[in-house]
Design goal:
547 residues; alpha/beta; Alkaline Phosphatase, subunit A; 2 domains; nine-stranded mixed beta sheet; 49% helix; globular
Length: 547
C-alpha cells in the first residue's frame, strides 16, 4: 500500500500539472491569439517549474493526504477570470453595460442558450479542468500558500471585467467630452415645419434590411466561396462602402441598429438604461433617430424580425422612435404559418411577411419605411432555413454557417426581385447592411486572416453607382440614408455620422479608429441625455401596433 500511494502521487503529479497549465494556456490563447507563441513559451516554463517543485518537495507529506482536492484562495478570482475568457471568446467582447442590458432587455430564448452551451461545451469543459486541476495541485501541496496567493493576485490583476471599471473610476480620461463637442443634434428636423418645407418632390420610400453578421469579409471567394454573390448585383447598383470598420459599442445587433438609425454607438449606463427600459419602455428616448425624422414627414414605419420583440430591447427601440407596426418572431409565425425556428421565425418566414407588408404599404399611398432583420448568419454556426437545405450550391462539407449566410442572401435577392417585378420598389431607397462583424463562430479563424469590414450598400433612383473607399463606420449609415431620402443636413452630418454620398471625410477617417474608439469608451457627457425622457415621447409606446 505504501508503494502504491507513493507511485500514485509520483505519476499523477506531472499529469495534473500538464492538464492544468496546458488548459489554462489554451484558454488564455483564445482571446490573445496573436501572442500564442509567447503564451506557449510561458506555459511551458510554468509547467517545468511545477514539475520540478513536485519532484523535489517532501514526499512524506503526500502519504498523509486523504483527498484529491482542496479549496484554494485563488478559486473565486480564477472563476471570474475564466468567466471573462469564456464571454470574450464566445461573443467577441466583454462589456458590463452591454451584458447587463442584454440580460435585462431579453437576451436569448432558452433554445438559443442551449445551442450556445452546446457549441461552447469544449471551452466549459476545459475551464472545469483548470479549476479542478488547481484544487488537485493544492491537495498535493504543489500549489503552496505563496503560489496560491500569487495566482490569486494574477487572476485579479489580469481580469478586465474587474480592472476596467476600477481604472475608469480612478482616472478621468481626457477624451471624456471629445464626442460631446462633435455631436450634431438633428432634433429640428422633427419639427412639423421642417417636414413640410424640405419636401419639394414626392418623398422616397425606404426598405432597410439588416443582414445578420454578413460582413464584407465574406466576399473573399477563395476563402468562403460565393456566399455573398446574391447581393453583389445590388451592391454594384449604387453606393458601396468598402472600408466600413466596426467602431466601439457597435458590435452586437442592437448596437448595430442604433448606429445605423441614430448615428451613434450604443452608449449606456446600466442603471439609467434599466430605469427607462423598465419604467418607461423607452429606448434612447433623448436621441433623435431616423424613425423620428421620418415620422415627422408622415411616413408609416414597420419593423419585422424573426427574434422576439423583447430581444435586446429591439421592440422598445423602434417603438420609441416613430415605428407604428412591429412584428417579432411570434407575430410572424402566427401570420405566415409554419414551425418557426428555435428563437422565433426563420428568414424565409420573415421575408414572406415582409413582402405582404411591403405590398400593403404601397397600396396605402403614404410614404413608408420597412425595416427587416434577418438572422441566418448568427453565430456560432448559423441558422440554415429549411427552404435552402441542399440548394446553396456549397460543398456539403462547408461549415453550416456558410450555408446559412448564402441561404439568407439568396432569400433576400429573391425578395427584392419579386418586389421589383410587382413595382413595389418604385421610388424606394434600398439599404443592405451587416448589423456588425460576425461574432466568434466556426469560421472565425478564417475571417481573422483578413482585414474585416462591414457590408453596406445603398441604391435607388438618383443614387450614383460608386464605391466609398474612405474609412467609415456604421454610424455613417444614418446621415447617408437621410441624404438619399433628400432630407437636408447641415454639413452632411447627423449625430456622429457623415453622409457617404457627400465629399466630406467621416469622423472615423479624420481622427482614426483607435482615437475614435478611445473617445467612445471614455464618453460620459452625452450618455445621460440620450437616456433622458423627452416630454414628447411619454405617450409613444401607447401608439404602437403589435400587429
Amino acid at each position: 500500500m505504501h508503494g502504491f500511494i507513493v507511485n500514485r502521487y509520483s505519476v499523477s503529479g506531472p499529469l495534473i500539472s500538464v492538464a492544468t497549465v496546458g488548459s489554462l494556456t489554451w484558454l488564455v490563447s483564445l482571446i490573445y491569439f496573436q501572442e500564442k507563441g509567447l503564451l506557449a513559451a510561458v506555459g511551458l516554463g510554468i509547467l517545468i517549474a511545477l514539475v520540478l517543485m513536485d519532484r523535489f518537495r517532501d514526499k512524506g507529506a503526500d502519504q498523509q493526504k486523504t483527498g484529491w482536492f482542496r479549496l484554494y484562495f485563488s478559486l473565486f478570482p480564477g472563476l471570474l477570470f475564466l468567466v471573462y475568457i469564456y464571454i470574450e471568446s464566445a461573443f467577441g467582447y466583454f462589456d458590463w453595460g452591454a451584458m447587463l442590458m442584454h440580460v435585462d432587455a431579453g437576451i436569448l430564448t432558452p433554445g438559443v442558450v442551449v445551442e450556445y452551451l452546446m457549441h461552447t461545451g469544449s471551452t466549459i469543459l476545459v475551464i472545469a479542468v483548470v479549476l479542478f486541476g488547481l484544487a488537485a495541485l493544492k491537495a498535493r501541496g504543489t500549489l503552496t500558500r505563496g503560489l496560491d496567493v500569487a495566482l490569486m493576485a494574477f487572476f485579479l490583476a489580469a481580469n478586465p471585467m474587474l480592472t476596467r471599471p476600477i481604472v475608469a473610476a480612478m482616472h478621468s480620461n481626457p477624451l471624456h467630452d471629445f464626442l460631446a463637442t462633435r455631436f450634431v443634434d438633428i432634433t429640428p428636423l422633427t419639427k412639423p415645419e421642417a417636414g413640410t418645407a424640405s419636401v419639394a418632390a414626392a418623398p422616397k420610400n425606404l426598405v432597410h434590411i439588416f443582414v445578420e453578421s454578413a460582413e464584407r469579409t465574406y466576399l473573399n471567394k477563395a476563402e468562403f466561396g460565393d456566399v455573398m454573390d446574391p447581393l453583389l448585383e445590388f451592391d454594384k447598383r449604387g453606393l458601396s462602402a468598402t472600408n466600413m470598420v466596426q467602431l466601439a459599442y457597435t458590435n452586437n445587433s442592437m448596437a448595430g441598429m442604433v448606429a445605423a438609425n441614430c448615428g451613434t454607438p450604443l452608449l449606456m449606463t446600466y442603471f439609467t438604461t434599466r430605469q427607462y427600459l423598465e419604467e418607461n419602455s423607452q429606448f434612447l428616448p433623448g436621441l433623435t433617430c431616423l424613425g423620428d425624422v421620418l415620422r415627422a414627414r408622415g411616413y408609416r414605419q414597420n419593423f419585422i424580425s424573426g427574434w422576439p420583440l423583447g430581444f435586446t430591447g429591439q421592440g422598445a427601440f423602434y417603438a420609441s422612435h416613430g415605428y407604428s407596426s412591429l412584428f417579432g418572431g411570434a407575430e410572424v409565425v402566427a401570420a405566415v404559418g409554419g414551425p418557426g425556428s428555435s428563437f422565433g421565425a426563420d428568414d424565409a418566414q420573415v421575408l414572406d411577411m415582409s413582402f405582404d407588408v411591403l405590398r400593403r404599404a404601397q397600396q396605402d399611398g403614404r410614404p413608408f419605411s420597412l425595416t427587416i432583420a434577418v438572422s441566418g448568419g448568427h453565430a456560432t454556426d448559423g441558422y440554415l432555413t429549411d427552404k435552402c437545405i441542399g440548394k446553396t450550391g456549397l460543398s456539403p462539407q462547408a461549415p453550416n454557417i456558410l450555408h446559412a449566410v448564402k441561404c439568407t442572401n439568396m432569400l433576400i435577392a429573391d425578395f427584392i426581385h419579386k418586389a421589383e417585378a410587382e413595382g413595389l420598389m418604385a421610388d424606394a431607397v434600398l439599404v443592405l447592411q451587416s448589423d456588425h462583424l460576425s461574432a466568434p463562430s466556426t469560421v472565425t479563424d478564417r475571417l481573422n486572416k483578413y482585414e474585416r469590414r462591414n457590408f453596406f450598400s445603398l441604391s435607388g433612383a438618383g443614387i450614383p453607382a460608386k464605391a466609398y473607399a474612405g474609412l467609415s463606420g456604421t454610424i455613417d449609415i444614418f446621415p447617408t440614408i437621410l441624404d438619399a431620402l433628400d432630407v437636408p443636413l447641415a454639413n452632411d452630418q447627423a449625430a456622429f455620422g457623415v453622409s457617404l454620398l457627400g465629399d466630406r471625410p467621416t469622423l472615423t477617417e479624420v481622427f482614426g479608429q483607435a482615437q475614435f474608439d478611445e473617445a467612445i469608451y471614455a464618453e460620459d457627457v452625452l450618455v445621460r441625455s440620450f437616456w433622458k425622457l423627452k416630454p414628447s415621447r411619454t405617450d409613444v409606446a401607447s401608439e404602437v401596433e403589435l400587429d
